[in-house]
Automatic annotation (TrEMBL):
GO terms for molecular function: triose-phosphate isomerase activity. Involved in the gluconeogenesis. Catalyzes stereospecifically the conversion of dihydroxyacetone phosphate (DHAP) to D-glyceraldehyde-3-phosphate (G3P). InterPro entries: Aldolase_TIM, TIM_sf, TrioseP_Isoase_bac/euk, Triosephosphate_isomerase, Triosephosphate_isomerase_AS. Its EC number is 5.3.1.1. It comes from Sphingomonas brevis. This is Triosephosphate isomerase. Gene3D superfamilies: Aldolase class I. Homodimer. The active site is at H92, E167. Belongs to the triosephosphate isomerase family. The keyword Magnesium does not apply. The lineage of its organism: Bacteria, Pseudomonadati, Pseudomonadota, Alphaproteobacteria, Sphingomonadales.
Length: 250
């Protein structure tokens, strides 16, 4: 099945008003790109980015599972939408690790975001130790099984508004990338899990690769079956690094 590629940048804890020019430059290039393009920004920058780049897909990096309440420091899906966001990341390994988010938390976050009308990039990925032990595919498959939105929420958001990002933890920010064969094996396994969860609709869910994606390796990674785009960290911060990756997805 032909799926349009999605190249999303995750700015993590980077980005000030001085960087709005980078965002508007990406948004202009995105108008003629052969792929969908998005930037997931710190919450503080979302509203100004939406003003600087009208019509461009701006996202958050996390969302709380509740609509509102006594959750100091958290942001709800309604708040992201209110700021002009159209998507959000959930389940990034940096949050799973540092904030102790479980698969059940990630599932609840994805369901809350989809119900509110956001698109979701749901991240999964294995540690170095799991990869070394030969358990990467089984571990990440079961992580996906227990993080995926289910029930009525799933049918409202699948396949158009859900993407999965496979991000091996050991490849994030390290310059290390799995072999092309390993990426292909993992993405094929995740496609099977998506079809098991959603039937044929699982064919439409995009599976992104993330972890040290650069202009120099993007084209080869995008050529792998069931790689439907990328979630890019460090190389999304500068237009000059990011746009060649977007171009490689054409
Ligand atoms: O974590 C990532 C994107 O969410 C990947 O980060 P890097 O592209 O910097 O390795």
């Amino acid at each position: 099945m032909a799926r349009r590629k999605l190249v999303a940048g995750n700015w993590k804890m980077h980005g000030l008003a001085a960087d709005l020019g980078e965002i508007s430059a990406v948004s202009i290039a995105a108008e003629t790109a052969g792929a969908d393009v998005a930037l997931c920004l710190p919450a503080t920058l979302i509203e100004r980015a939406v003003r600087a780049a009208p019509g461009f897909a701006i996202g958050g990096q996390d969302v709380h599972q509740s609509d509102k309440g006594a959750h100091t420091g958290c942001v709800s899906a309604a708040m992201l939408i209110d700021a002009g966001a159209s998507l959000t990341i959930v389940g990034h390994s940096e949050r799973r690790e540092a904030q102790g988010e479980s698969d059940a938390d990630v599932k609840a976050k994805a369901e809350s975001a989809l119900l509110a009308g956001l698109s979701v990039i749901l991240c999964v990925g294995e540690s170095d130790a799991v990869r070394e032990a030969g358990d990467a595919v089984s571990t990440v498959s079961s992580q996906l099984d227990s993080s995926l939105p289910r029930g009525d929420v799933a049918s409202a958001g699948v396949p158009d508004r859900l993407a999965v990002a496979y991000e091996p933890i050991w490849a994030i920010g390290t310059g290390k990338v799995p072999s092309i064969a390993d990426i292909g094996e993992m993405h094929a396994a995740l496609r099977e899990r998506l079809k098991a969860a959603y039937g044929e609709a699982g064919e439409g869910v995009r599976i992104l690769y993330g972890g040290s994606v650069k202009a120099t390796n993007a084209a080869e990674i995008f050529g792998v079956d069931d790689v439907d785009g990328a979630l890019v960290g460090g190389a999304s911060l500068k237009t000059s690094d990011f746009l060649p990756i977007v171009e490689a997805a054409r």
